[in-house]
Amino acid sequence: MDEPARGAEFGAHVFKIARDEKGARLTFLKVTGGTLTVKQTLSGEGWEEKADQLRLYSGSKFTLLQQAPAGTVCAVTGLSKTMPGDVLGRETAAQAPVLQPVLEYRLLLEDGTDAALAYGQLRVLEEEDPALHLVWNALLREIRVQLMGPVQMEILQKLIESRFGLKVSFDAGNIVYLETIAAPVEGVGHYEPLRHYAEVHLLMEPAEPGSGLQFDTMCPTDTLALHWQRLILAHLAEKAHRGVLTGAPITDIRFTLVSGKAHLKHTEGGDFRQATYRAVRQGLMKAQSVLLEPWYAFRMELPAPSVGRAITDIQRMQGEYEPPEQEGEQTMLRGSAPVRLLREYQTELTAYTRGPRTHPAARQRLPALPGAGADRKRAGLRPSARSGKSGKLRVLRARRGLRGQVAGRGRGGASAAASARRPRAAGAAADRKIRCARRRAGTGKGAAGDL
Predict the structure, then answer these.
(1) Is there a contact between 83 and 131 (Cβ–Cβ < 8 Å)?
(2) Chain centroid to CA 382: how far?
(3) pLDDT in tens, 265-275
(4) What's the rounded Cα separation, in Å, for the pair 283 and 182?
(5) Which of 110, 284, 335, 392 has the fewest Cβ atoms within 10 angstroms?
(6) What is the 3 state secondary structure string of 171-183?
(7) Under a CB-based contact definition with an 8 Å cutoff, are residues 362 and 100 in contact?
(8) Which of 84, 94, 73 is CA-nearest to residue 15?
(9) Whose CA is closest to 342, among 298, 291, 292, 393?
(10) Higher per-residue confidence, 27 vs 394
(11) pLDDT band at 5 (very low <50, low <70, confident <90, very high)
């Protein structure tokens, strides 16, 4: 087999992150072009570090290299920002993973370990496998992790116990929803406290399904300096922005910077961070938001007598299916259905067919069907109080209505009573000031008697 052509310019693919016996971080990579040498400076998106050592591993033992030519698979120490899937040098970015976790679980510590301390330890696992998506909720002081299902959950439990000595369990979990917008909208963010100033105008447009978030600028440099524009785009990408329906992350939106303002004296970098976040939020509040839920594409292997039951179940789950196909003694049924309705169906299918299998795989996200989002309510996530115009979930609208009634009752009752007491309290305070002034002046007119 012919070797692929390798250029003289350095390039490498990172495929694994690990730790040695002393806890040193190891970046495993394959050199695809040029030569990697010790103390060579490597750079990525927002970082630049030097390769301290080049290790060629054979089992648990290794030998140190002074240089690694193209085609070498080695471990590099001294890099703290690399992640699996990163590219270095002339290499182009790899494609995003096809499968994404669609289930989120709360990690429960059984031995009473502090959750914040455990989260710091588990971040090591996230570096090794970015698909875990560990999230720390500071308000509830809990750890949430996104997984593919029970098999990965069991593997993670054993890995945590063997690596860190922690016994953990998981709750029932909920669905990972996303949000997007249905039509273009402009969001404006203004930040102007004392001696600070920034203003950002963003055009938010729906993007192709599955494309994620995209960032661009069409603002003239005469209106806003180029370094401020780059800072705004960096602030857009640095944070997972939340939607206004269920608090789920947003996706499939194209952000375009159309205008902005800065002050020559009072504008600082942090001002544009606040203005950018406010522009995104204001745009989402104005937009027609859409809740996206994940679907599973499945293939069932069924005996002929069970096909009718399976089709009835798919229709009950509001799913889609193709005409059945006969393959030997088994019948193949292919289709798709929402994850929230299909996730527990494997047990039911095995019960009434006595062994046939279903093979689910994550598919594109589609607009949510009626009833979606209820588990987000159980998880304590709720929309903003001002998002009533764009909300389409009845359960969340009812919660907003209840909160509005409580606020209205306060304005109509407690506020009215407070306004009625305010003149009386102000008059009493004025009388006390007059009496004190007269006593200090020594007039004696009612001073002792009034007091």
Answers:
(1) no
(2) 15
(3) 888 878 999 99
(4) 12
(5) 110
(6) CCCEECCEEEECC
(7) yes
(8) 84
(9) 298
(10) 27
(11) low
pTM of the model: 0.68
Amino acid at 341: L
Structure tokens given for 75: 């471990």
Helix, strand, coil percentages, rounded to 5, for the chain: 30, 30, 35
Residue with tokens 């799913």: 319
Q: CA–CA distance from 203 to each of 112, 255, 271, 384 (Å)?
A: 48, 6, 20, 21
If phi over 0 gives left and psi between -120 and 50 gives alpha, with beta otherwise, what is residue 138? alpha
Measured CA to CA, the distance from residue 327 to residue 354 in angstroms comes to 18
Altogether, the residues listed in the chain come to a count of 451
Please check whether residue 15 is in contact with residue 30, taking contact to mean a CB–CB distance below 8 angstroms. yes
pLDDT category at 384 given cuts 50, 70, 90 is very low
Rounded Cα distance between 66 and 38, Å, is: 6
Q: What is the pLDDT of residues 237-261, one digit of tens each?
A: 998 899 999 888 999 999 999 999 9
Burial class (CB in 10 A: 0-12, 13-18, 19+), 115: middle
189, 199 Cβ separation under 8 angstroms: yes
Question: Which among 72-81, 106-115, 386-395 has the top mean pLDDT?
Answer: 72-81
